[in-house]
Write a sequence for this structure.
């Protein structure tokens, strides 16, 4: 690589990274700034951890993060468990109505969520799942399904059919061929879908607010929205809480990112 | 023959869970919404009766609807284009190896990881004409982005781009990584220029992923709510009101469930039409499936 | 490796939770009454399934030997996934248990009180609730907080109440929702416990009007909010009484220090703009309701909105007001960068804090008018209401909760702790308020002149229309006659 293109690369990386984390960094600085310095133009004088203290003090933050993690993990697992076999079947098996299924899944994510809130509320109440975490997990899973299904279908498609057929000839059942041969090869896709689904469920606000009411079931976006007073906006605490809330996601992202990379470097066969 | 048929039936077990979930959970709330859109339902006035298509007839002559549709279309067009280009750039960057690549991979996910409500507030803070970052960096330029018609929409687009370019990048990166390295090696041996390689190998092989990205980004952008609502509330003077915000205000603020549902159904139909066009133009993401 | 690590991490915790749940269930199993349907998660098949999952995974996990792994990647999915499953199942079951133990089973009346996040000194509010709990040992009181963003909370209540939810007993409603909710049949008629005549006698006029619909009481005021003019005592000789004075004072101050803004207020497209707009219309002599009809398109109203637009055009107000809400204005004023500000009483509390740069340099006055008389403030505030669909057996306790929180003593205690004006007239004469919260006590003349925004069932519909037209005027997109014409037409269509 020439030194000029190397310099270009470095510049691009720096520009990209600062575009992505710049505002987040600003938020982190805000969370460490005294209230009185917040509306000053210029950099803060002294840093403080007060906002973190009061953010954690006012609400059971560990519990709230746990709720969000439970829901997001459940949604990720469930939607992948449902989407992966379906995607495999669509890509590799002779299933009739493939395009109808793909189209229908797509259609469900086309409805503005606000119009589904009332009917879902009634339905959840009827089955007694209002104000429970499963009551949130089920709709999330459904609305996360289309993306997972579409991503995975593409990935299964890219795996050569010969591999599947070879596994069948070797005596694998349809399911074990899927699980032992194709699933590991689709890992980059699974990890990608997992990250995107996880974050979607972690951050959803509208359903979480409407379907959960008891304080011990609150999820992070709802908890953050509770910091605001009727007119006041304690920006320091909000920034502190959302910085804290981002940490678990970064950890999850690192785990799944490693999956993407390791699956690729394992030298799997590609078409 | 018998074997094939038994395979055929058994393979439906793989799609069964997906079908059940879609039918039971997803379609369920849509049916009442469509039904209500054919009624006049205003809870406050205890009104609830069938009116056929008159909500839809009103919609055709509702200038606010057309403004909202125009705003939404503009938002989608600009935001999704920029996101796709930017995301592709990020993905290509991530695909080359350099020191600190792992760090960049995680860094790029951060915007996607912050709840939209918070990130919109964060940007509102950055743009604040009196004490925001922009006025700190450029003292004297008290641009009021959010309060000026014409500018506010672009401010909202920037938030959406910032927030979702990582989503696009991640998907495209996963697509890039399935392109066999051998193809590139062969092209380099043949002496193809990097630009040529990009247009003849990368882009065509990335097409299925691009379709997925385009479809899903458009779906989401067309229903954009949080980012704009927190930033501007639809203002000034409804110049940033999108279809979702209009539907939200009709449903939950005015309590006009009938017309609100009509707006939701129409949004749904618009999105459906757009995805159909995409798929018609670019093909399904999977090569052997025709629609 | 990772899987094994996760497993060892999760197992003891999950086992503990699991055992706890088993204990809770077995102890409840024999005596459980058939159907408290209300929060019935505990008996659902799903719950049983999850419990069986926990049985399957939790105890066995630590005993499992690491099985030989296929050398392919992705083989780790299994342990990671099962660890996750345990984690989820445990989380879910634990949630189920907490709720189950909180339902009506124990023979107690379970009252759910939903309110806004507490401001100021929250302990005073909690003490009141503790008093209530002591007085009602038969009641189990649960408090649940909802966000303060008015639209979102309105949406929550609308969804829940339209579905005739029984899970809410008492809640805090915004002043502008009462007539809408009562008309929709969401609120219990409280006329026999709080007769309209008493409400009118005890509470300030605007607040009483807001809670009485068709001669019946549907809510009891908890606190009120009024628009005030904040001014800098070091920059202005005296508070301006007329709009001309306000502009002249601002001009003089700006002449001395060009970096200052003159007058900051709230003109983002939201409910606050309507308050600012109405205050200006009233200040120009306008009347916004005639009988049942909301009259918007009057010469006075046009003058009111033209004045607001003029503030921006003449440079008295910075262009940034068109995207400002309360906090944006407050921060600018508090940094000493504006001469005047329109805001609610909460800003006073903020500006008295030690780190506030303008502490001791701020005065508060009634809003100006065109004639020089004290102006009319838009009246805001919160009301306590009872859900009409709540179980009848909860009513007595719910009413007592409302009584406890809206008594004169409670009024005064909250005003002192939170800096929100009390709605009861008598509170302003009380010595405790005068000595401990003199600022609030001094607001009496403003409070009694405060006017509610149009009190109708369809207020939310018309506010949606007015918001965008007011915004169009102040940003210069439409002229007042055009915008008012459009607004009046839309309002008439709704109210026909």
């Amino acid at each position: 690589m020439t030194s000029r293109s190397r310099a270009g690369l470095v510049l691009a990386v720096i520009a990209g990274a600062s575009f992505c984390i710049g505002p987040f960094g600003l938020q982190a600085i805000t969370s460490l700034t005294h209230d009185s310095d917040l509306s000053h133009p210029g950099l803060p004088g002294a840093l403080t951890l007060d906002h973190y203290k009061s953010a954690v003090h006012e609400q059971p933050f560990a519990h709230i993060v746990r709720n969000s993690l439970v829901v997001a993990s459940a949604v990720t697992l469930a939607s992948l468990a449902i989407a992966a076999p379906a995607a495999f079947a669509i890509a590799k098996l002779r299933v009739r109505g493939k395009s109808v299924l793909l189209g229908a899944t797509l259609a469900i994510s086309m409805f503005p969520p606000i119009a589904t809130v009332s009917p879902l509320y009634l339905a959840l109440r009827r089955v007694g799942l209002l104000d429970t975490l499963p009551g949130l997990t089920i709709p999330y899973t459904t609305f996360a399904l289309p993306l997972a299904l579409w991503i995975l279908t593409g990935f299964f498609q890219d795996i050569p059919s010969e591999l599947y057929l070879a596994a069948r000839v070797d005596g694998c059942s349809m399911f074990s061929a899927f699980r032992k041969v194709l699933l590991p090869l689709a890992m980059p896709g699974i990890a990608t879908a997992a990250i995107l689904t996880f974050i979607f469920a972690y951050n959803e606000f509208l359903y979480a607010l409407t379907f959960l009411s008891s304080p011990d079931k609150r999820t992070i976006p709802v908890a953050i929205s509770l910091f605001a007073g009727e007119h006041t906006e304690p920006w320091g605490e909000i920034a502190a809480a959302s910085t804290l809330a981002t940490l678990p996601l970064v950890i999850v992202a690192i785990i799944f990112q490693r999956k993407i990379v390791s699956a690729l470097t394992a030298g799997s066969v590609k078409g | 023959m018998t074997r094939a048929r038994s395979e055929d039936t058994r393979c439906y077990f793989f799609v069964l869970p997906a079908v059940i979930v879609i039918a039971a959970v997803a379609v369920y709330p849509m049916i009442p919404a469509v039904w209500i859109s054919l009624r006049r339902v205003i809870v406050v006035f205890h009104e609830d009766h069938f009116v056929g298509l008159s909500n839809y007839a009103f919609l055709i002559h509702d200038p606010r609807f057309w403004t909202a549709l125009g705003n939404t279309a503009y938002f989608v067009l600009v935001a999704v284009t920029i996101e796709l280009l930017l995301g592709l750039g990020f993905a290509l960057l991530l695909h080359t190896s350099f020191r600190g690549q792992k760090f960049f991979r995680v860094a790029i996910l951060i915007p996607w990881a912050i709840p939209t409500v918070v990130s919109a507030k964060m940007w509102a803070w950055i743009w604040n004409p009196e004490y925001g970052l922009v006025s700190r960096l450029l003292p004297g330029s008290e641009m009021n982005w959010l309060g000026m018609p014409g500018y506010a929409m672009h401010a909202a687009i920037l938030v959406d781009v910032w927030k979702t370019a990582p989503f696009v990048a991640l998907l495209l990166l996963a697509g890039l990584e399935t392109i066999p390295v051998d193809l590139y090696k062969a092209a380099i041996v043949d002496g193809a220029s990097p630009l040529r390689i990009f247009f003849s190998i990368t882009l065509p092989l990335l097409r299925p992923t691009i379709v997925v990205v385009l479809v899903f980004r458009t779906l989401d952008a067309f229903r954009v709510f949080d980012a704009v609502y927190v930033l501007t509330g639809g203002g000034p003077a409804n110049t940033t009101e999108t279809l979702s915000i209009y539907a939200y205000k009709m449903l939950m603020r005015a309590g006009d469930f009938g017309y609100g549902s009509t707006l939701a159904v129409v949004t749904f139909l618009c999105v459906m039409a757009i995805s159909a066009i995409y798929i018609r133009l670019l093909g399904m993401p999977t090569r052997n499936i025709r629609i | 490796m990772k899987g094994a690590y996760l497993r060892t991490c999760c197992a003891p915790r999950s086992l503990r939770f699991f055992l706890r749940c088993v204990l809770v269930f077995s102890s409840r199993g024999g005596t459980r009454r058939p159907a408290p349907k209300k929060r019935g998660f505990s008996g659902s098949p799903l719950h049983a399934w999850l419990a069986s999952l926990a049985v399957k995974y939790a105890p066995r996990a630590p005993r499992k030997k690491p099985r030989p792994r296929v050398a392919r990647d992705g083989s780790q999915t299994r342990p990671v996934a099962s660890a996750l499953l345990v984690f989820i199942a445990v989380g879910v079951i634990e949630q189920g248990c907490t709720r189950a133990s909180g339902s009506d089973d124990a023979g107690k009346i379970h009252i759910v009180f939903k309110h806004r996040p507490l401001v100021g000194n929250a302990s005073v509010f909690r003490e009141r609730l503790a008093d209530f709990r002591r007085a009602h040992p038969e009641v189990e009181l649960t408090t649940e907080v909802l966000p303060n963003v008015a639209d979102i909370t309105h949406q929550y209540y609308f969804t829940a109440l339209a579905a005739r939810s029984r899970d809410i007993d008492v809640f805090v409603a915004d002043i502008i929702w009462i007539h809408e909710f009562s008309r929709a049949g969401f609120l219990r008629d409280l006329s026999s416990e709080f007769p309209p005549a008493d409400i009118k006698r005890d509470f300030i006029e605007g607040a009483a009007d807001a809670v009485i619909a068709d001669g019946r009481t549907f809510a009891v005021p908890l606190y009120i909010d009024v628009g005030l003019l904040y001014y800098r005592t070091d920059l202005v000789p005296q508070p301006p009484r007329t709009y001309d004075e306000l502009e002249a004072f601002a001009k003089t101050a700006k002449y001395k220090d060009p970096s200052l803004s003159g007058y900051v207020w709230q003109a983002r497209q939201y409910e606050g703009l309507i308050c600012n707009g109405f205050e200006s219309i009233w200040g120009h002599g306008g009347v916004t309701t005639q009988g049942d009809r909301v009259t918007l398109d009057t010469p006075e109203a046009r003058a009111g909105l033209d004045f607001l637009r003029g503030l921006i055009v003449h440079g008295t107000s910075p262009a940034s007001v068109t995207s400002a809400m309360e906090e944006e204005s407050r921060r600018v004023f508090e940094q000493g960068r504006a001469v005047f500000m329109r805001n609610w009483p909460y800003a006073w509390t903020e500006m008295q804090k030690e780190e506030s740069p303008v502490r001791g340099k701020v005065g508060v006055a009634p809003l100006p008018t065109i004639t020089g008389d004290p102006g009319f403030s838009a009246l805001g505030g919160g009301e306590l209401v009872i859900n009409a669909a709540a179980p009848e057996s909860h009513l007595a306790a719910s009413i007592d909760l409302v009584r406890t929180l809206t008594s004169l003593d409670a009024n005064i205690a909250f005003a002192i702790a939170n800096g929100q004006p009390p709605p009861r007239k008598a509170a302003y004469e009380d010595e405790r308020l005068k000595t401990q919260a003199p600022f609030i006590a001094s607001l009496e003349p403003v409070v009694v002149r405060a006017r509610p925004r149009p009190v109708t069932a369809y207020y939310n519909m018309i506010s949606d229309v007015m918001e965008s037209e007011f915004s169009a005027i102040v940003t210069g997109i439409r002229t007042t006659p055009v915008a008012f014409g459009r607004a009046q037409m839309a309002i008439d269509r709704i109210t026909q």
Q: What stands out?
A: Residues 2-36 of chain B form the longest helix (35 residues). The longest strand of chain B covers residues 39-42.
